[in-house]
Amino acid sequence: MSQVQSVEALERLVGSRPLGVMMKSLGALDAHCVRLLSLSSFAVLGFIDEEGRARLSTVGGPRGFATVVDSTHLRFELHEPLSLNPTVGCGLLFLIPGLGETLRVNGRATLDGNTLLVTVEETFVHCAKALMRSAFWKPPVSVVPTSLGPVAPGPLSDPAVRDWLSRVPFVVVASWDAQGHADVSPKGDPPGFLRLDGARVAVADRPGNRRTDTFHNLLEQPRVAVLALVPGEGRELELSGVASLTTDPALLASMEVAAKVPKVALSLEPHQARLRASPAVLHAGLWDASRHVPPDHLPRMADVFIDHVRQNPQRGAAAATLRALASKRMMSWALTQDYKRNLY
């Protein structure tokens, strides 16, 4: 299997991280983040458990289930007890029903009974492409399971796990850098986009916000968790193990969508697979279209992105130029064009 083993090799494939994209990141919750949290009813939580394993779980409830304590702290109640190592970072991906963009919050977490308190270190809004490609918020449709490829003995050999993976259009990936900072990132494609390769499951990389945080992290340390959701279902599948980056031509060719072949894929060797009921999906009413946020209540995402770029404290002439030239009209146009031309 062809592996990517350095940042230089990765950037030759997918490019470097653009300054403008990185400047959408803030170190605290601003008014836009607070508003998005007030509209969110569901999130995916990435953490390291007390045994040092990468884990993912879901949390949710009524809109605004996550309470903003102040600009660097938020808290919410867990549905089930959690084994969490507080010395390592955690990441959260908040979903707003009906909105394509997601809010990513990274930091540190502590537990007080079933209450999780998160100290925010980084926050930014992720583009809508993963949810658009997966048709995440559209009415669920019956999907004929697809062939995922050969499978070896192990967690992926369970027929229930294979059936679930064959119908998945959307996954969330949790990763950590060498210092223990977490990141939780969405990946989406038409149902059946995952591939099995022996004892590993592969996730295609598609155009997104171009931060490539997951890939940079696993080049530093390979422990990764993947959580797979199927619209309309009240369960979730969690895979936990070690990952690498592959450019295997045959594997990538099998992932072609809309005449586009991915340049790289994440290849996870799961040590554990947990297919379980998701209380968070139930409490959030995730698939109930009547509980989606009305379009006129949603923020204009171009406003959010531009305001975040302007608030970013990055120094230097290039950063100052970006802040000066950034306009909401330009951002709105750029987002529309990007979603049309670079969805795959």
From TrEMBL:
It holds the Pfam family PNPOx_N. Signal peptide: none annotated. Gene3D superfamilies: Electron Transport, Fmn-binding Protein, Chain A. Residues 158-274 form the Pyridoxamine 5'-phosphate oxidase N-terminal domain. This is Pyridoxamine 5'-phosphate oxidase N-terminal domain-containing protein. It comes from Corallococcus soli.
